[in-house]
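Two proteins were folded this term; both appear here.
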Amino acid sequence: MSGHKNLGEVDIRFQDGKRLPSTARKQARQSAPGDVAVLLLNLGTPAAPTARAVRRYLAEFLGDARVIDYPRWLWLPLLYGVILSVRPRRSARAYAKIWTAQGSPLLVHSRALTEKLAAACSNDGVRVALAMRYGEPATAGVIDGLLADGVRRLLLLPLYPQYSATSTAAAFDAAFAALRWQRRVPELRSIGDYHAEPEYICALAESVEKYWKLHGRGARLLLSFHGIPARYVRLGDPYEEQCLTTARLLRERLNLADDFLITSFQSRVGRERWLTPYTDAILAQFAADGVGHVQVLCPGFAVDCLETLEEIQIRGREQFLADGGERLDYIPALNDSESHVQFLRGLIRRHVRGWLGGGADAGA
């Protein structure tokens, strides 16, 4: 396997003892001057809805041992010999269905959220930057830019409400790997999850209530979270428990019956057993049971992306209607909504307490 690059590691190149500049460094110059910054971390996206761009992205994503933990000698030949020969074309077609004039929805929404949060945090003396675990803007380049601009205290905030090693820890890995090469490492704090934060639950409830006010209430509300292999939970990943806690708190906040709000898990791949119940199976069961109108919310996604827009809003709806259902509505992610921005601002203010003067602490 020596011919394969270890895609779970950050690619670092040097010239005259210094890291080469990256276009991602520009992403660090988002907001207020000062030595305190928060780095929003999201999954990432292909640069274009083409098989070539998707292949590059999937090689980095699926090559990460946090995501697929099979032995490298077993997994990498399968990845490069089979999966990356077939899946990029199929995935590119899916991306093409949701691609916008501004680019990938995940990147567009993440940037919009970052800009609004940067404006909200500017009076607190905290700058805000965005980085992706896979693709651009790359985590290493953004961190380079922040440190070059004088940041000495850095808060890492993965945009994953529920913690999983496959997402949150993978984002931390990229940040820690980038800092490994810094001569002066900043003071560092990190937020592992916010799945049960009251303001987060309120923001979700508010989005559902606003949607109901505009479009009416369906016969069922399905909360669809991204799945992970069930084996990962047995090994200690708290993701399933945190997803169920989010669902319970939202059900209580909206005062809904247990049989009205249902929780499921989507996006499974391969033959290994993933967290159940599966979203596609639940939708098929709803149709078979005569549940005509279903609404779907995906609380595990901070912003809309391929998994929400193509997998649920397009394919999920098509499946539900083909199985005999009458209507499936997708309730958008929190994206750059005011409630989302204000929740994240409050979360940040709480975690940077002590790094700033009274401004960040006041009212936190």
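Next, the second protein.
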Amino acid sequence: METTFTSWLTLAGLGAFHGLNPGMGWLFAVALGMQERKRTAVWRALIPLTLGHVLAIAVAIAVAMVAGAALSPGMLRWPVALLLTGLGARQLYRHVHPRWAAMRVSMGGLTLWSFLMASAHGAGLMVLPVFLSMTAVAGAPSCHARGASTQALAGAMATLVHGLGYLAVTALAAWFVVDRFGLGLLRRAWINLDVIWAAALILTGGLTLFV
């Protein structure tokens, strides 16, 4: 029971960490609100941002479940660890920041952008070590560790918990910037989390082998 609670807490914490990154959504929500000069635009943007992020997590978990039908949890951890470490190393050498002139996007486009950004940043991969530890029994093939329906339910719950953590922190960050400082602060003092994000990816990749 304690292990399960820790896993849920970790999933929510990862969602909060993803939501803290300005490149993962709240910066776009703030920019849209400033451009339209409406607070409602900020909160409206949170819906597609969260949906896109949640879809990226769900896709990563679904792929892991399909792969788990033939591979053991131990075998799955190696490619996940390598992908996480590779993405982290790539992030260290390639910093991509959103352009201010490109902030005007539709809600559908924002959902797609959030999905692609979360996928490219390895957000779904960071969730997999926790999901694998929740659903697999050591030394057993993933398909026999839990029933398919049980795994699907665990995957849905993991996605939901992670999404709630992401939404809470994204909304809080957007509110704080809009109400306290405004977009001008970000132009003067960009909060660069690229290095922290890259280090987190590499660290998670290493820890994946020991989960």
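The two ends are 17 Å apart (CA to CA). The chain has one domain: 2-208. These notes refer to the second protein only.
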